[in-house]
Design brief:
This protein is α/β, with parallel strands linked by helices and 484 residues long. Helices cover 25% and strands 16% of the residues. GO terms for molecular function: arylsulfatase activity; metal ion binding.
């Protein structure tokens, strides 16, 4: 069957009923209890350090603070590939990008044999819904979603306002021509705005609430895909005048320039801010960035309130995360195409039945592991195609750790390995290495790769990174030998 076709997605849904599954362990369904709902709230480009309850005192996030109090906060949750469509494709399939075919090189087509998260749940009797941003080639119904609302997708760039700028006067390059439309894309609604608008998060929340309102006895999985706080940055009405540039603190790792070409210095994101980066420019971006996140938090609160009002909160797992973070001036970068903590670390808050409130964990998990984890929590067998590992045992308090090390990658220009203390970044194109001691240097300011006393650590991490690249079938191995 041709790659990326609708037929393949539907065939996979049918196969879920026939075989190709592995046991997910015990869960509510397996124990005979009422099957839980799953509400997955996904931000776009939100750094993991932008939640007040987790230490950021410059921003107001009462709804996310509530989720921190009510559930488990993962302070080392990881996006392995910091680009929207690759990260979201990993989440949707429970596979690494080199496995599911979406590699970040402009390819949006899934490989044959992938298994989609919503299709697995639909085959198990769940109603499955998606709201908001969709950045993949197959349409939602082709991947197992049984309902769509507030669908936001590529539209017609010719309809985009000419020479539009955001609230900082920066030319709009992101989401040009995107608009609300029907799930099959046949009916478009440019009257609701073309491109990002100040109230777009509210529209996504409205759509999510409409689904929650009509939910019946059938258990459901609802994915709400926000665009906030991705650029362009327009001040939402709810936070107008609340944040001021002169009150913003610069990131601890602010730099005017990144010290070398990390593989994306000429990318779209990096062109959104002039070189060299100035304190004034970074503070102005943070002012808007925080205002958009603050409004996003308000919309999340509206959704959670309706969940309570309809009597569904107690049997619903609420998951909040972002597809990746963002530099916003850290390390002299503006965008997300890097392996630093401010980008690969994402917020991940999970609350629901059986999860002890107010727990913070340093367990290293990948976002793509949400798929098998929710399967286990629901008592649904995990498809064999899913290579990601469930971390449900961490949520239940049975384990304190998950991965001894995690890995990251971006095109052919960056590779990374991180354990509980050390991080090694390899730049195959730039032919550079970086070693950071994250315990002593959490902001990654001092590169220790050439320090003689750390030579053994570097060699060990290089060996681990090389082994992972071989195991995963890194397509750049032919041009970049794994040996240092």
């Amino acid at each position: 069957m041709p790659r990326g076709t609708a037929g393949r997605c539907l065939a996979i849904s049918a196969l879920l009923l026939l075989g190709g599954l592995r046991l997910a362990g015990s869960g509510p369904q397996a124990a005979g209890a009422e099957r839980p709902n799953f509400l997955f709230l996904l931000a776009d480009d939100q750094r993991g350090d932008t939640i007040a309850a987790l230490g950021n005192q410059q921003i107001s996030t009462p709804s996310l603070d509530r989720l921190v109090r009510e559930g488990m906060s993962f302070t080392r949750a990881t996006c392995s590939y910091p680009i929207c469509w690759v990260s979201r494709s990993e989440i949707l399939t429970g596979q690494h990008g080199w496995e599911n075919g979406v590699t970040g090189l402009g390819n949006l087509n899934f490989a044959d044999g992938v298994s989609f998260w919503p299709a697995t749940f639909a085959a198990a009797g769940y109603a499955t819904y998606t709201v908001g941003k969709w950045h993949m080639r197959p349409k939602p119904a082709e991947c197992g979603f049984t309902g769509v609302a507030g669908f936001y997708y590529h539209g017609d760039g010719k309809l985009h306002p000419v020479d539009q700028t955001d609230d900082r006067g920066v030319p709009v390059t992101g989401y040009r021509g995107w608009m609300f439309q029907s799930g099959d894309g046949r009916t478009r609604h440019p009257d609701q705005g073309v491109g990002l608008t100040p109230d777009i998060s509210a529209k996504f929340a409205d759509a999510a609430i409409s689904i929650i309102d009509k939910a019946g006895d059938q258990p459901w999985l609802l994915m709400v895909n926000f665009t906030a706080p991705h650029d362009p940055l327009f001040t939402p009405t709810s936070t107008a005048g609340k944040y001021h540039a002169d009150q913003m603190q610069l990131p601890a790792n602010f730099l005017p320039r990144h010290p070398f070409d990390h593989g994306n210095l000429e990318g779209r994101d990096e062109r959104l801010m002039e070189w060299p980066r100035t304190p004034a420019a970074v503070r102005d971006v943070l002012r808007l960035y925080y205002a958009v996140i603050d409004d996003l938090d308000h919309q999340v609160g509206r959704i959670l309130t309706r969940l309570e009002e309809t009597g569904q909160r107690d049997r619903t797992y609420v998951i909040y995360s972002s597809d990746h973070g963002m530099a916003v001036g850290s390390h002299g970068l503006r965008g997300k195409q890097n392996m630093y903590e401010h980008t690969i670390n994402t917020p991940l808050l999970i609350s629901g039945p059986g999860i002890k409130p107010g727990v913070r964990t340093t367990a290293q998990v990948y976002l793509r592991e949400l798929y098998p984890t929710t399967c286990e929590l629901a008592g649904i067998a995990i498809p064999e195609a899913v290579t990601a590992e469930s971390f449900a045992a961490v949520l239940r308090g049975e384990k304190q750790t998950h991965h001894a090390r995690i890995f990251g990658y971006f095109t052919g220009s960056q590779r990374m390995v991180r354990n509980d203390r050390w991080k090694l970044i390899h730049y195959p194109v730039a032919k550079r290495w970086q070693l950071f001691d994250l315990q002593a240097d959490p902001h990654e300011l001092q590169n220790l790769v050439d320090a003689p006393e750390h030579a053994a650590i570097v060699a060990d991490l290089q060996q681990q990174l090389a082994a992972w690249r071989k195991l995963q079938g890194d397509p750049t191995l032919r041009t970049d030998p794994v040996a240092p």
